[in-house]
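Exercise 7.
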Amino acid sequence: MTHHRWGSQQKRSVSSRWLITIAIVGLMISSLSCSRGQRLEPLALAEAPAGPTVATYTPVPTLTSAPLPPTSPTPTATWLPWPTPTATDPPIPTPTPTATATFAPPPSATPQPTSTPVPAPPTATAVPKLVAAAPSPIRPTPTPAPTPTPGYDYLVNEVYLDHTTVPFLTGYIAIVNAQEIPIGGVKAVGVFEPGGQRHESPLSQWFFDVATAPGAVAKTGSVKFEPGGIQAGTWFIHLENERGDRLSEDVAINTDPASPEWFYIKFKQPGPAMAVVSAPTPTASSNTAGIAATGGPAAAASGGWSFLGVKRTYDPDWESLFVRGEAVNGSGAAQRLSSISGTFYDAAGQVIADGDDIDSYWPIYVVPAGGQVPFEMTLYDIREVADFDLQVVTQASGETVRQDFEFLELEPFDDGSDFCVAGNLKNPGASLGVYLVIAVVLYDSQDDVINFDSGTWYPQEVVGDQTLDFEVCVDPLGQGVADYDMRAWGQ
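Solution. The predicted structure, written as tokens, is:
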């Protein structure tokens, strides 16, 4: 090839040049030696022939350069590309995938038969509120049914309506517990139909603070229900607490602007059964209806209770008959007095008034054993009675009521039309934390009760030598006062 031949000629030229160069170097060395003055010593020739010596030139043999062994050119590094794999390259072995465990169903000896689908159970329905049912007349072994539990906190105890000349509706609502004690924090709520108008009363008080105007019938309550003008329709009234929870069933009060009326509703908490005791039927000849006066033998009543000094007085301003006296707790234990009432008859022996027609009042609720408490009953729109029976409704009480107080420096005096008593009260026992009630009872010459009144104090500081100054006044109702008595109860 052309490239190879060019390389051989270049090598031969180089060899000739080297020979020439060597010759030139040798001449230069000889010249330098002469130029430095070095003398050539004569050769000592032994036995040299005489005569001149002729020098003979001998040509330098021509050197023939032997060819140098071929020299490989300096290899040049050449970057070769990374071999690209081709389809002929052997495939990379693929790892065998790990087998995934499979959960096989347990072997079944016999295939499970397909059953007919069971129908879904019926949808549960709300269980209705239990309602006490009348006992079946056909029952082999009748068992007395328990008293049904009331569905609400308060039951409707009394509803009363009466005519009025006032052109707007007023309702008097009494909210009491089983012992007739007013309960506060409850409101009367009414919905009027047609129209759905809603009205709420204020919250009730913990005492009776509303009363009807003097008339044939007087009612007291703890809150008023006054929605405004009278419309033709019906108010459905119930009780709710402050949060709006219903506490009673509805009471329907029909209203008509052509015949305006006020109404009264008593809602009462259900309570445990209470003992009812009554005095023997009195005779009609006595003003006290056969009940013994103070100082005489008391008319005994079942349960250990009896009545003293019972007297009837008609009040023309109220157009009502008032019956006053004292109830004595001879049961031997403290009793909570829930009701004092009676049944009243005319001369023909017909009932003209009973518990539903009577309002009663007494100053304390728990009467200690042996204690006696004055009471007053009002028979509305009745002028006189020929005969009557008295009853008390009580239940046992674990409360301790004290009556061991001392009255000092008592001074009765008249204050206009009132009979008043002033004095001091001493507490020989421990401090009182709940109440102190002081009452004055007025008697006529027959030792019958004319009237009474009382006041309430909270004298926690009256202990030991300390005393309480008090004054209590009573209206004698135009009757002569023959005597008076002081009573005090504390807790």
